[in-house]
Amino acid sequence: MPSTLSTLLFLAATTTAAVLPRTTPPQVATPQVIVAAGGGPPNTPPPTNLSDTGTKVFQAVNFLENMESAFFLEGLVNLTSHWSLPEHKRKHAIDVISKVQAQELVHVQVAENILTANNKPTFEPCTYSFPATTPEEFLSLANIIGSVGVGAVINVAATLATSDPELVGGPASILAVEARHDAFFRAAAEISDIPNPAPFDTRISAGYALNLANPFLVHCAKKPDFALIPPMKMKALPHAKPVTGSNGPIVFTIDASAKVPSGKVSVGWVNQANKVVYTDATVSGKEVKTEIPAGLAGLAFAALTGQEKALDVNSLTAVTVAGPAPVQIS
Questions:
Q1: What is the dihedral of CA 75, 77, 82, 85, to 10 degrees?
Q2: How far apart are CA 235 and CA 327, in angstroms?
Q3: Is the dihedral of CA 35, 171, 221, 210 positive or negative?
Q4: What is the pLDDT of residue 307?
Q5: d(CA 41, CA 125)
Q6: Average of pLDDT values for 296-318?
Q7: H/E segment holding residue 281
Q8: Alpha helix stretches (DSSP H) within 15-134
């Protein structure tokens, strides 16, 4: 493990900022990383007939996996230096997160190999700032980031099924691994000792995934093109439980830049494989009050909107006034 951490720290310190087509991708997945991850990128040649849609998909994967690997690296550094946990829990967390971090770097390498084989630009890591100053905050944020990652990869597979169907197998295989990561962090963050709160994970759009990543970005040489949506956050719960439960009132705060419609406003709820569910909302200043609809489970995503016609997450993304806000239902 020390050799793996040293390698990852070296990679983080020597990253360049250029975003240019390459004839050879950078070797993010070094031999040490591959050993720690349990394997490297597929040993078959990357496809060379990537569609324009497929290019955007893998550039978003490249960008988001860079952020995830940086997040887990920061957590590892803190866990091995000054964060305090019971020794057995700390050692177990370091062992698991070391493998998670290495696997994220392999996923970065896969995306970069595909983009480079098609003479498309790749994205170097940004400078990030993560709001986690304690192990508890890190593990809780890891659960949210992991769930967002799972939802984004579901969207990747669904999009490629239409644009580049021969490439669906790779993201489908990555999705299973990301779900295992998320199950660990769900337990480690003491959300619940049940790793599978719902029969389906929740798909989110690329736009939602990139907007959820945006608050962590300090400086990027280049980012994927995406429409910025004013953020919306759930207000702290009035109890110590980490979940809201289904049904009951909930309050969000929205950014001052949100352009709230003058007429009826609603909150659209994205959860599992269901169509969007809407609840009436009232907006007062920066506060949004609504009710959690019945029948939700796991992690849901809430978005303020001025309509109730969008039935899927990609349609809702286009008409979102503020959001999305992750809500841990169960």
A1: 50
A2: 10
A3: negative
A4: 97
A5: 19
A6: 97
A7: strand 277-284
A8: 31-37, 52-81, 87-117
CA 190/CA 194 separation, integer angstroms: 10
pTM (two decimals): 0.90
Residues 6+ apart with CB under 8 A from 142: 71, 72, 75, 185, 188, 189
Tokens for 16?
């360049």
Q: What is the pLDDT of residue 46?
A: 94
Nearest C-alpha neighbor of 102 from the set 76, 132, 79: 76
Structure tokens of 52?
Answer: 């324009």
Distance from CA of residue 250 to its chain's centroid? 23
Q: Read off the pLDDT of each residue in 222-247 and give the average, rounded to a whole number.
A: 85
- In sequence order, what are the residues at sequence separation of 6 or more whose Cβ sits closer than 8 angstroms to the Cβ of residue 258? 230, 232, 304, 321, 322
CA distances from 307 to 1, 65, 260, 267, 296 (A): 51, 33, 12, 9, 21
Q: Is residue 126 helix, strand or coil?
A: coil
Q: What span, in angstroms and rounded, lies between the C-alpha atoms of 48 and 52?
A: 12
Least confident of 153-157, 246-250, 263-267: 246-250
Q: Is the peptide bond before 324 cis (omega within 30 degrees of 0)?
A: yes
